[in-house]
C-alpha cells in the first residue's frame, strides 16, 4: 500500500462463531436463532468451516500469517445452553484453548460477545429481544464471559451490527401479529440497554479492558445536487447510522429520529433509569464494519412502498434498494463498480465515513470488518488467485491510511474474513476468507485449508507494516 502504519497498529482478521465453528448441536451446545433461520436455505450450520474440530490448524495459519490480533465471537448457546443458569464447561474449554494458543503466539484476542446468535430457547420462552427479560439474561452471559476470560482478553465487542439486525430477515424473529416497525424500535431500545449493561459489567470486572460496539455502517450519498436528494441522504444517515451512534456515544436519541418515530407512533418505551444507564456506558472505541456506500434519492410520500430485495445468489441484478416513501430510496451509483452481489465497491467511502464519524463522536476507531465476497475457484494447481480481493483490501487500506493522515484515530484493521465462512446470506457460494475451505454448499469435500493469494499478500503487508 506504500503507507507506513504506526508500530502498534493491530493487523487482524475475523470470524464469527456460527459462521465457522459447525458442531452446532455438539457437546452441550443448543440451537441459536440465526442457525435455525439459515438452516436448509443455503449451507447448514452443522459443519460450517469445521473450525470446532480444526481450530488448532486455523490458529497455526494465523501465526504463519503474522496476525497481531484475531477477532472472533463466542456463541451464547455454547456457553449457556439454556440461555442462563448452568454453564457448559465444554463450551468454556473450547474458547479457553483457543485464547491460550493465541496468547502463546502473541495474537491479541478481540472477542465479540454477541454476533447474531441468540439462544433459540430464549426466543421461544419470551420472544428474545422483544422482551426486557433478555437484559438480565444477557448481563448474566456477559458476566460469565468476563469472569472466565477477563484475565486474557483485553478487547471486547458488545454487539455486532445492531442496525443490520433490524434490516435483514434471517437475523431476528418478529411477531407477525404486531406492527413490524414498532417491534424493531422496541427491540433496538432493549438491545441498547443490554449493550450498556455489558459495558458496566465489564468495567466492574476487568480493570484494563477496552470495550465497544461494532456497527455496520453504509454512508449515504445524494443521487444528485437536487436539494431534496441531499436531504434524503441526511435522513438515511440519521435513521441508519446516527440513531445508533448517538445512543452509543451521546447516550440519547437523535431528536429528528425520535420525532419521526413519535409521528409514526412507533417510539419505544423508555423505562426509568434506561437513559442514565446508556449515557454512563461510554464505549472506549467504535468498531466499524465497512463494505459499501449507498446512493439515495428523494421519493415523495404518495409513491408506493417497494419491498426490499437483496441479491442472494450473486447471479442476476435482483436488488431492490431500501425504500421509505417521503424520505428516500436507494439507487445504483454510476461511478463505482459492484461486487457480484451488487455491493458498491467504494474505498474512498471509507475515508469519508471515518472522517465523518470521528468529527461527530471524537472516538478511536477499530475497523472490525472489511472485505469482499467472491466466488473463488481452485485452479488445477489447487491455487486461489483472488486478485479482486487483493485490490479491494489494498485500496481500502490506502484510504484508511489517508483518513489517519487526516487525523482520525484508527488503531486496528480486521479483514473479513480469516477463513472462508458460511455467509449468512449466501452460504459457501460467497467467500470472504484469506484462507480457502475446500467445501461447497452441499458437498463437504475435505475441509482442507488452502492459503489464497490474498493470504500471502496480507502476510507481506503485515511484515512491512503497510509498505507492501
Ligand atoms: C456482516 C456480518 C458478518 C458477515 C459480513 C458479510 O454484516 O457482521 O457476519 O457475514 O457482513 O455478509 P454476507 O456474508 O452476508 O455477505
Automatic annotation (TrEMBL):
One GO MF term: beta-glucosidase activity
InterPro entries, sorted: GH (IPR017853), GH_1_N_CS (IPR033132), Glyco_hydro_1 (IPR001360), Glyco_hydro_1_AS (IPR018120)
A cellular component term, taken from the record's GO annotations: cytosol
Active site (record annotation): 369 (nucleophile)
PROSITE patterns: GLYCOSYL_HYDROL_F1_1 (PS00572), GLYCOSYL_HYDROL_F1_2 (PS00653)
Domain of life: Bacteria
Record keywords: Glycosidase, Hydrolase
One of the GO biological process terms: carbohydrate catabolic process
Similarity comment text for this entry: Belongs to the glycosyl hydrolase 1 family.
PANTHER family: ARYL-PHOSPHO-BETA-D-GLUCOSIDASE BGLC, GLYCOSYL HYDROLASE
Protein name: Glycoside hydrolase family 1 protein
Organism listed in the record: Virgibacillus salarius
